[in-house]
Amino acid sequence: MTTEPPDQFVIEEAQAGERLDRALAMLLPDYSRTRLKALLLEGAVTVNEVVLDNPKHKTHLGDRISLVLPEAKPPEPLPELIALDIRYEDDHLIVLNKPAGLVVHPASGHETGTLVNALIAHCGDSLSGIGGVKRPGIVHRLDKDTTGLLVVAKNDRAHRGLAAQFADHGRSGPLERAYQALVWNVPERRQGTIHTALGRSSKSRERMAVVSEHRPDAREAITHYTVEEKFLDASATPIASLVTCRLETGRTHQIRVHMAHIGHPLLGDTLYGMGFKTKTSRLTEAVAEAVLAFPRQALHAAVLGFEHPVTREELLFESEMPEDMQALLAVLGGK
Question: Where would you tag: which of 103, 219, 271, 323 has the fewest CB atoms within 10 A of its CB?
Fold first, then answer.
């Protein structure tokens, strides 16, 4: 669990002349500036025995600072006993294999039965609090019907370290994310990179779309893909392929939008691939039946690697393809 900070400090030369919130951040590197500023505004900090709630207050050499951390508040979502497939856990974080159908975070229409509800029940007192609330720290998400590996922080220190790695997208560190996807037809190139801007679709708030990079909400999105296996019909015409996608950014629905953008939406994706439903007419009856019956987008987070935010150990996890995707793969002719 996160080490509790000492409750008193003396400002030394390194902090003298700094803003109070900056000085506290230097003294408590495991806590975010946002969290420390909130504590200041709540009256949890005294300077020379006087309560100060001004983050801009300039410190002086020899100032005596006291900090009282309030007890972490109970989480708003309620704990729920939901089975979890845990691949790794320690005092700082937990890595799990998410099944299809499980929403990560409570939201409108999904206030209960989420991964957060399950983690609050599972972790209990090992959650020391994220931003002062006893809740798991979600640093990345998987869509409701996407399966696979997810890492969640248990305390501020782990949350801050993991968030920094995901914000960097592995460009300067060991963060690695690879997904298995079953897509319509076969991309012309065995390997490729899709580099676009993504934003909310102007036609539907549920959808993301490739947009102009000049739009205010546009965010850079980069996906690298490799075709692992091709599936042909009886006349040797390509019908589908197994693709590995590696993320260099992590935007909402990124892989689903990007693969649809290049003309190869995911099998089972009713949000981005409905236009390909008619292609089942040229499949054999068994294959068409399996494709039409597949209840979700065929996407699985198979590889997750990162640096442990506390021990600095490089961790790498792999998750086998779920049974429903394996069954679809077998019907398509995969090994």
Answer: 323
- In the prediction, which pLDDT does 75 show? 57
CA quadruple 229, 147, 247, 272: dihedral positive or negative?
positive
What is the DSSP secondary structure assignment for residue 296, as one 8-state letter? Answer: S
Q: What is the pLDDT of residues 127-164, one digit of tens each?
A: 876 766 777 889 999 999 999 999 999 998 999 999 99
Asked whether the CA dihedral 287, 291, 294, 296 is positive or negative, the reply is positive
* Residue with tokens 């590996």, as numbered in its chain: 149
Tokens representing residue 283 in the block: 């499949």
Instruction: Evaluate whether 22 touches 65 at the Cβ level (below 8 Å).
Output: no
Which active-site residues does the annotation give? 143
Opening angle at CA 48, ends 45 and 50, nearest 5: 55
| Stated pTM of the model | 0.77
Contacts of residue 138, defined as CB under 8 A and 6 or more positions apart, other chains included, come to 104, 105, 116, 152
Give the C-alpha separation, 31 to 5, whole Å.
10
Q: Which of 223, 224, 242 is nearest to 232 (CA)?
A: 242
Pick from 188, 189, 217: which is nearest to 201 by CA? 217
pLDDT digit string, tens, across residues 309-319: 999 999 999 99
What tokens appear for 232 in the block?
């042909």
